Amino acid sequence: MLAIDVKDLRKQFSVQKNREGLGGALKDLFKREYNQITAVKDISFQIPQGEICGYIGENGAGKSTTIKMLTGILVPTAGHLRVNGFIPHKEREKFVRGIGVVFGQRSQLWWDIGVIESFQLLRKVYRVPEADFKQRLDELVERLQLSELLNRPVRKLSLGQRMRCELVASLLHNPSILFLDEPTIGLDIMVKTEIRDFLKKINREQGTTILLTTHDLQDIEALCSRVIMLDDGRIIYDGGLDELKSRWSKGREVHFQFGERPDLTVLRNLTEGLPGVAWSLEELTAAMWLPHAVNVSDALARVVGGGVDIRDIKIIETNTDEIVREIYQSGTASKEATEKLAQSSDSVSKETVHHG
């Protein structure tokens, strides 16, 4: 069974046009005009149970709007979606029992009461039996080391402490799907690492499906095997993280530490004939740049067998953050989205002709 099934999902908003000047303001009082803004443009994807999927894109790409439709907060303008077999905005009461949600910039905890009291209120909201609640709470509190925080008011927690409590709150009713919208925003590296480790553990041990939106692409690298990338409301990439790197990454860099300074001409001669390979040298350290078309093992074998005094080797992959930044800065994202839409339209046209 699919955890999430989305087909041709679209969301439009009516945004009021504000006319200029005093006269325009007076006209707006009596007759308002609106623009139609399409935030999500006929997207389709499926997420099987037990997968951790990263949902990424620039601000305004449509990530949060999608999450709000998947969690039943917003009603789609068009298209179909099912989450755990339910239509979120139509079967709200049954649907929410199977999902957990964490919005990094909004809290589901009550600000002025103790953390444990918020948990007790959520137990009643989700109708969790007392015995199940206690067992689940004890397990989560131990894993996230929250025992000393339970009696503190939420307003007295640090951001990292609050986010750990938010995770517990979202998991108290043992949901099968967890939606995370910027869960590590503003956190220091230690807290981020703790949260990532915790999420990997619940996914591995309990099969919890996780859909993660984030601007911190280290979250994606640490957690996700699959990435869905949005640009201007359209999906421009849906696939594995490794494929994303090989498709858009410029290449890899291999750093060599030598016992004595080598001759740069000698190094270049060792990799002669390998297309696109470039060398730079600084004292006892050299960097060999390899495009993805060149096999790393072949290049390394040539250098290692070349009689130079190598003390250390380090392979540096282009990270996801650099790749995504390059995609958007170069305008490749818009181009990919346009091409994908054109292919989709062409496919529909052919199908129409065939059936006609």
List the helices and strands and how they pair.
Elements: E1 2-17, H1 21-30, E2 33-48, E3 52-56, H2 63-70, E4 78-83, H3 92-95, E5 99-103, H4 115-125, H5 130-144, H6 159-171, E6 177-181, H7 189-206, E7 209-213, H8 217-223, E8 226-231, E9 234-240, H9 241-248, E10 252-258, H10 264-270, E11 278-282, E12 285-290, H11 296-304, E13 310-317, H12 320-330, H13 332-355
Parallel strand pairs: 3-7, 3-8, 5-6, 6-7
Antiparallel strand pairs: 1-2, 1-4, 8-9, 10-12, 10-13, 11-12
Helix pairs in contact: 5-6, 9-12
What this model shows, in words?
The protein has 356 residues and is α/β, with parallel strands linked by helices. The protein folds into 2 domains: 2-246, 3-Layer(aba) Sandwich (Rossmann fold), CATH 3.40.50; 250-317, 2-Layer Sandwich (Alpha-Beta Plaits), CATH 3.30.70. Helix content is 41%, strand content 27%. It has a 6-stranded mixed beta sheet, sandwiched between helices. Strand 8 and strand 9 (234-240) form a beta hairpin. The longest helix has 24 residues, at 332-355. The chain is globular. The two termini are 34 Å apart. This is ATP-binding cassette domain-containing protein.
